[in-house]
TrEMBL record:
Keyword check for Repeat: yes
Residue intervals of the 4Fe-4S ferredoxin-type domain: 245-274
Keywords: 4Fe-4S, Electron transport, Iron, Iron-sulfur, Metal-binding, Repeat, Transport
The name this protein goes by in its record: 4Fe-4S dicluster domain-containing protein
Cellular component aspect of the GO annotation: membrane
Superkingdom of this protein's organism: Bacteria
PROSITE patterns: 4FE4S_FER_2
Amino acid sequence: MDILDQIKEAGIIGAGGAGFPTHAKLASKAEYILLNGAECEPLLRVDQQLMELYPDEIIKGFEAAGRIVEAKKAIIGIKNKHKNVISILRNRIEVLKLGDFVEVKELQDVYPAGDEHVLVYELTGRVVPETGIPIQVGCVVINSETVLNIYNALQGKPVIDKFITVTGDIPNRLTVKVPIGTPIRDVLKLSGIENFEGYAVIDGGPMMGPVLSNLDGYVTKKNKGFILLKKTHMLIRKKSSSVEQAKRVNKAACEQCRMCTDMCPRYLLGHNMQPHKMLRSLNYSLSNTEDQKISFLCSQCNLCELFACPVGINPRSANIYIRQKLIEQDIKYKPTQTELHPRKSREYRLLPSKRLVARLGLSEFDKSAPMKVIQMEPEFVHIATRQHVGAPAVPAVSVGDAVKQGQLIGKIPEDSLGAAIHASISGNVTEINNDFIVIRRA
Ligand code: SF4
Ligand code: SF4
């Protein structure tokens, strides 16, 4: 079996949150392969610790991925504040004699340093086209945990666990390895809180992660962190407002100051994303869909809404609303610019992470969340058949079957994009439905 097939068999998807099947991403040829170790969402502490704890595995997994795409260079992007991790990685690259192929480049501590378009520009000087993806400029971007999973796949181990940071306004901040399918409540209890009344939980980072509508879900390969905050925290109140509420506030308060546009990371890269125009369009009921099409250029990084806007209104929501309306009319954006250049002012308009954390009201929670070895032993795991981009996995087991940890339980449907799923514990299959394969611990 070749390496790409081993990756496919192991059920690897982008562990950074997007969930794109890795075997499909690595099927292209690229000049550069880039490791996204920026972890730019405040409070999350997974990637930086994995690179410190498993440097050889990550470097070797990254090298393997780079060879598959026939890259000339493999570049690890990591924030310059992680001095210790940078020194460990550089030392191990030398010891492993991979210095001709793999190098470490330092990134500024700004948000969103881990946005793929921003990362590609910072590491290669190339600008990904509007609505485009990195491969269009010869780059493949891959996350640290994903390359650790590639290394494991090469040792015959499929993806059955996920590293997750549990943090926020809690007594115990920590990062743990959790079997996929574990109840989210079990993971949240590691925070030292038993009763979640009065708390809200952000699934992922504070900028892009949504507030969980209920806590009765199960861990998937895409989870990265859970942030617990009191329901009264301003970030929770802001994130919990509906599109209709956002529309009402937007109508009343936009002063067309352009701050949302001037700080927009995509605008600063030279794209035509100009959120203030979306507000203008909504507030004056303008119907020129030509102007509205730029709403397709938004990465939803949320910088405009949670930092830039001086009156606290919702440009990102305006983009989403307008884009949805255009999609309903089957209108799409067609990029016209062939050569893109970052704006001259870009370097002065980057947003330092510390300022962002302060604005989000999270400074007192911006603390370490050390990796802890905790034996999580859920009685049941609910393994989602769709935890990735593409078609859901097709069950390869039946109710009543005994399964071993690591056994294939769901296959990629024929001729489809998808990812395989495996048993994260040994036990018996008790239920199979449209969404889950349920296993009871033996
Ligand atoms: S949405 Fe906010 S930042 Fe953007 S133009 Fe209006 S007031 Fe200014
Ligand atoms: S969310 Fe706002 S700042 Fe981010 S890309 Fe979209 S318009 Fe720009």
